[in-house]
Amino acid sequence: xxxxxxxxxxxxxxxxxxxxxxxxxxxxxxxxxxxxxxxxxxxxxxxxxxxxxxxxxxxxxxxxxxxxxxxxxxxxxxxxxxxxxxxxxxxxxxxxxxxxxxxxxxxxxxxxxxxxxxxxxxxxxxxxxxxxxxxxxxxxxxxxxxxxxxxxxxxxxxxxxxxxxxxxxxxxxxxxxxxxxxxxxxxxxxxxxxxxxxxxxxxxxxxxxxxxxxxxxxxxxxxxxxxxxxxxxxxxxxxxxxxxxxxxxxxxxxxxxxxxxxxxxxxxxxxxxxxxxxxxxxxxxxxxxxxxxxxxxxxxxxxxxxxxxxxxxxxxxxxxxxxxxxxxxxxxxxxxxxxxxxxxxxxxxxxxxxxxxxxxxxxxxxxxxxxxxxxxxxxxxx
Amino acid sequence: xxxxxxxxxxxxxxxxxxxxxxxxxxxxxxxxxxxxxxxxxxxxxxxxxxxxxxxxxxxxxxxxxxxxxxxxxxxxxxxxxxxxxxxxxxxxxxxxxxxxxxxxxxxxxxxxxxxxxxxxxxxxxxxxxxxxxxxxxxxxxxxxxxxxxxxxxxxxxxxxxxxxxxxxxxxxxxxxxxxxxxxxxxxxxxxxxxxxxxxxxxxxxxxxxxxxxxxxxxxxxxxxxxxxxxxxxxxxxxxxxxxxxxxxxxxxxxxxxxxxxxxxxxxxxxxxxxxxxxxxxxxxxxxxxxxxxxxxxxxxxxxxxxxxxxxxxxxxxxxxxxxxxxxxxxxxxxxxxxxxxxxxxxxxxxxxxxxxxxxxxxxxxxxxxxxxxxxxxxxxxxxxxxxxxxxxxxxxxxxxxxxxxxxxxxxxxxxxxxxxxxxxxxxxxxxxxxxxxxxxxxxxxxxxxxxxxxxxxxxxxxxxxxxxxxxxxxxxxxxxxxxxxxxxxxxxxxxxxxxxxxxxxxxxxxxxxxxxxxxxxxxxxxxxx
Lengths: 382, 529
Fold this sequence. Notes:
heterodimer; A: alpha+beta; Immunoglobulin-like; Cytochrome Bc1 Complex, Chain D, domain 2; five-stranded mixed beta sheet; 10 strands; elongated; B: mainly alpha; Cytochrome C Oxidase, Chain A; 18 helices; 0% strand
């Protein structure tokens, strides 16, 4: 009885609260690129071929079910094996398949031609975020899910783009051939935006290529398509296609922002300022594994609350955050966060949830370590 | 054991029945007992895997996280897949082969009866190990039933070592089972039972057994490479050490694609037995069915990379695997056309086994259609790793493999027990399952096309409606399987006896022995004209 009531309650809830977003979408979208439209056409062709074969095969079958039933007095006709029929039902499908293979091959060849691109973007999959590097533009950023934990945990009403919203969009110019170079930092991910008909695996140690040319400005959303661990369902992709002039403008803006960020690292921060910013950074970058309460999910994701690292030598703590722990889920955050963000989040970890070291780590301290570390890494490689 | 060996000669041999107590089941070398053990084991695994499926569907009933954490959700999908593939479907087919192959070819038992006992009895240990990982520190395997490296090596929970050991044991069991079936079919056929007179169930199992022997060692190889990477410092799949994560997928799918046919060829065999019986007509094209089965088996070794179209294969590779995959539609089409031509102008009745067999043909064909769509590489980029794939393989596995197993059990159960089925309950079970399975899996096609990736515990709002429908369907399907359990137990306990032939249109050696089939059958080989 309880379950029935839950189901009915759920159904009514779903029909009332989600109806604004409910689409009952049945089919693939034709998308916004030439390639995505030919993929859509292929999809519809093969679909109608299947429907036609289905009508014939199931038609004969249901005819037999209705007309050749014993209860209607049907007597079995003892025929079997008929060379002509058997050859026909081998050759005809073969012909249909060849007819289908021709346009499929043409589309595939087109999809594989990533030459003569005007813009190169490297996409790197991380557990569980994407990193976008605009090659030749000195521009590089991470893109994280922004849906609040409260929405996921059902304490808050879900927003329109629930689970499909990120802090930084991948901004791309329209009418430009863009080559996408895909790789991964840890496990295999797969970068998929249905409207572009691009899905390519991001494999650690490999660089895969794909390309797109977007016809219409707009916001196109996608998701990671390859199981990549706990938060596989929580690393969406948002592509923002803008006209080329606007794209140049955007490039100039983000570069200016980057300079401002560098300046922020120079100023001196109070412990309170660091704690406030640190909490935000922590919730965005760390809480998925170490949990908002700092208790982690041992053994894969250790607790920070009361941990010897967060309470012990600050140098070790900074080193782990900057460079990660090899062969564990702990990533290197040196490239993911700015010096001031790193300082803030480390300070937060050392002073939150009853960890009261009272120590503040300053952005300039981190900036120094980043410079020093880079040297050490360089020497090690030689 | 030695007393059993020496006690064998003597006139009383044919009449001695089963041993008593638990010893009967632990030490049995009788193909019927072992078949029964396999079938009960498979039913248990089906129910455990089914409970996991219902937990997964409950979490997906609505957007947001309600019941399980994302980490545990991944453990559930992984364990559901492994248990259903290796614990439910494969042992069920081996159980049916154990029971029916000797009866159908006129053999007194399997060729290697003691190995037969061993190949069953290592299975419960394998699954005890696998299921126990759920209670280990760090949880059960959480990397999907396809366990792609490096998620399953460098990033795996500690329980992965137990998972590898369990897979090794399952593989050994399957290989021994396959050797036994091949040895039996090739050596123990009754006089006059030539290869081209073998019932199709026997033919499909013979071919399946060769597939098993070919690919199970490959699976053992790939999990051993994982073990080396995890514990012995090798870097087969670790890019940082010069290894290749994509190599894992090649090796896995070289096993994995034939594995798909291991789970469907015996189903073809069962349906090819049932449809002629209830059409009261011979199978339309026996020889072409045999050749089609063999072609599918050979092609299955040439198509593995169609599971990897998005992994970054070179263009030539994509084209080769696309064409080879499309080619599989031809022999598969031959099979479907043959079943339909067998029904055409027959004299049809619709007992429970026939209902399941017809539903198999229709729904498996729908799974075949989506398979054909998935074969088109450029379009597969849109389908790959979405719910469209989930819909596809559940259509070929649930109303495909599992419906065929149920059809087979309903068809042969009266022969095994000597008692009649409860037909109305069987039909009720069929209709609940048929409706439930379609409500569950058909909307998944739409979800996939609309862009929902597979293996996610939570989803965007535009996917909410069809997910809710699918969950309702899953509960209908899941709970209606209790009707099946009820009917099996009812049939065992019933007093309503059946004739040796059981079904009016049934032909073959298995229908010439009395019902219930005595503990020892065909001790004197029958002669096949």
